[in-house]
Specification:
- The protein is 67% helix and 7% strand.
- The longest helix has 33 residues.
- The radius of gyration is 28 Å and the shape is elongated.
- α15 runs antiparallel to α16.
- With 397 residues, the protein is an alpha/beta fold.
- Strands 3-2-1-4-5-6 form a 6-stranded parallel β-sheet, with helices on both faces.
Length: 397
């Protein structure tokens, strides 16, 4: 409620210095407010980071703080390293090593189980489990607070800090072993590099060259309009190229690949990605970094359409809607209706449903209101068709 209007105002100044200074003000201010209620300033900085992560301007913030990130992380870990009591490793080696391996093993096992459920892929789940099996750096902040509030004694805190620090040191070694010995057995095919590097800029970029993207591409090619197509499935790319299609392998949600595809020189961006979350990530990146592009977005369903509309995308096309309407037109003709009459019915229905979509969008978080709108929409549509036919509309049950 506060940050969005403030950053919108600051962004309008078009000064990266003012933008960065405002971000720092939010971090310092949040830290001071949190410290005033008796909590850690580090916790306040963490909360400010959470606020930024949910901000519409997070990509610009990331770009602004990139030069400082490595330096500040280095200072943080230097400070952590200076607080590690390495003498405990000599005094109690079995306890320290056992706790470290136990932490890594238990966390990796939990992450692997979660990854299996989320990704349905053993290789992705195992990669996640190994890469983030170490203790988190926020543990150092929590242990310091625990000692300050006398929840933990200093010796226990020193032991836990050493264990978390060693888990961080062990993780790169585990990952090296995993890459060399384990991942080849889990991964059927070695990853290939993204190859988005068109010879020249094109007016249209198609992200996702599946069912929808291919239809768009075929029509554009038939009319002699050049385009750049991107898809993130290497198997899909190899199959499509067998039929003479020029498609690049790349993740359209990555800013560097969009720049390589010369998105800054394009006019139209066709968002035809099948996966809803990947589609939303790509839309966010394009809206934030290439505001001049007109986005035509494919929506998997009504909820996906609402999310796209919420981002300010005006051209949202529901993938099942057009096909269903066209099929209904053929059914009406086959039942004996004249083609012109059938087209008129479909045109009225399409206009009515698109208007209903926009009306419902305003009340997307109010289920009761949506039910009322659905009931009134059915009655309204029946009345429209009855008037066209010169009949008195029947009351709907």
């Amino acid at each position: 409620f506060v940050m969005r209007p403030v950053f919108k105002l600051v962004a309008g100044i078009h000064s990266s210095e003012v933008f960065t200074a405002t971000a720092l003000l939010v971090v310092v201010g949040t830290s001071l407010l949190v410290s005033r209620v008796g909590l850690s300033m580090s916790l306040g900085a963490f909360l400010a980071g959470v606020l930024f992560a949910d901000s519409d301007y997070r990509h610009e913030l990331e770009a602004d703080i990139e030069p400082f990130k490595g330096m500040l992380l280095g200072l943080f870990f230097i400070a952590v390293g200076m607080s590690v009591h390495l003498g405990l490793l000599v005094e109690r080696p079995l306890v320290v090593i056992g706790l470290t391996l136990g932490l890594v093993a238990v966390k990796a096992a939990c992450l692997f189980a979660l990854g299996q459920g989320a990704f349905k892929d053993r290789e992705q789940a195992a990669s996640m489990a190994v890469v983030i099996s170490q203790g988190g750096e926020f543990a150092f902040v929590l242990y310091g607070m625990a000692v300050g509030y006398q929840i933990l004694d200093r010796r226990t805190s020193d032991l836990l800090i050493l264990v978390v620090g060693l888990s961080m040191a062990v993780t790169p070694l585990l990952f090296a072993v995993y890459v060399r010995a384990i991942r080849p057995k889990l991964k059927a095919k070695v990853d290939r590099e993204f190859d988005v590097a068109p010879d020249e800029a094109t007016p249209v970029i198609i992200a996702g060259f599946g069912r929808v993207g291919q239809v768009v591409g075929r029509i554009l090619r038939a009319k002699g309009i050049p385009f750049t197509a991107m898809d993130s499935s290497p198997e899909h790319i190899d199959f499509i190229k067998k039929f003479g299609n020029k498609v690049f392998y790349g993740d359209a949600s990555r800013l560097d690949l969009l720049r390589a595809a010369k998105a800054d020189q394009a006019r139209i961006f066709v968002l035809a990605i099948d996966d809803v979350e990947a589609s939303m990530r790509t839309a966010e990146v394009v809206k934030a970094n290439f505001p001049h592009l007109t986005i035509y977005a494919r929506a998997r369903n009504r909820s996906h359409a609402y999310r796209l509309l919420d981002m300010g995308i005006k051209h949202v096309i529901r993938e099942t809607f057009a096909g269903s309407v066209e099929m209904t037109g053929e059914i009406l003709v086959d039942l004996g209706m004249q083609l012109t009459d059938a087209n008129s019915v479909l045109a009225r229905f399409r206009k009515h449903d698109e208007g209903l979509l926009l009306r419902n969008y305003k009340h997307v978080n109010d289920p009761k209101k949506l039910q009322e709108l659905a009931a009134s929409a059915r009655a309204e549509l029946a009345q429209i068709f009855a008037q066209d036919a010169g009949e008195t509309p029947r009351k709907s049950a």
